[in-house]
Amino acid sequence: MDLFKPMNNKEETSASKETLEVKEHVKCLILGSGPAGYTAAIYAARANLTPVMYTGMQMGGQLTTTTEVDNFPGYPEGTDGTVMMEDLKKQAERFGTEVRFGMATKADFSGKVKQVVVDENTLITADTVILATGATAKYLGLESEEKFKGYGVSACATCDGFFYKDKVVAVVGGGDTAAEEATYLAGICKKVYMIVRRDELRASKAMQKRVFNTENIEMLWKHQTKEVVGDQVVNGLELWKNKGEAGEETVKIDIDGFFLAIGHTPNSDIFKEYVDTDEIGYVQTVPGSAKTNVPGIFACGDLQDKTYRQAVTAAGTGCMAALDAERYLGELE
Fold this sequence. Notes:
The protein has helices spanning about 35-45, 80-95, 145, 155-160, 175-185, 205-210, 310-330, and strands spanning about 20-30, 50-55, 100, 105-110, 115-120, 120-130, 135, 155, 170, 190-195, 215-220, 225-230, 235-240, 250-255, 255-260, 265, 295-300. With about 325 residues, the protein is of the alpha/beta class. Mean pLDDT is about 90; it is low at about 5-15.
């Protein structure tokens, strides 16, 4: 579908009757503003690609929900996630990146010239597009969970586990990710509760064996989270315990940290028609590069990484995406 040419009568719908006009054409368009997007912008700007970035609705990405970042190189005393993202933004702007607030809502990568609609009404065309839209962690949807994000509630054990050294934490989930995070935390924390809705794990046999062989992991089978409890920070959980025919009972446990491990949703929906994704929606890239199956389209960060999901690895792939975009444009000249 060409976004800036009128459709024929058969293709026309009520949502597409108004033809968008191209606002501008850019060499390099970057979608997303986490560590991957900002690093891509820094490298693209230094290569004179005059990148334009649209930040998405969460400027700075998931790190802005983290109060303290202790494992990113260059911050020996640690830093606040929002502060770090602002530092990266300033660095990208210093080299000439134009950073704009807005979210990509449609895309057409079928032609040599790439087309992206921002906020439903602004059409940008580009020679290259770097996708850095990330992946959104799945949460339970509790108000109390939202209240304590960054204050005891986390969706990344590798990122935040260190802050709970010798403390008691809980992990919710029953798949491989939950099992991996629970065993990781068990090596740091005094005790780990693993909250599982069913009476068995969905994780692989190998991961189950690791969990069951870890002494300081306690399984809470047939439990679901009712509320996250705390004052300024998390100090407990209220759970529902399924007792079968006897109904449910409320159980309370004392914890210092609550970790969600129920999966992530890659923010790839509007690109799936053109770029290859796996069954979950992670964009697939050519091994050893940030190239997608579409020439001129590059992907980086958590959008294409379901294994590591760290700020430093996202930044690395952002660098790769910008260098790949530079080389692609050089080959066209």
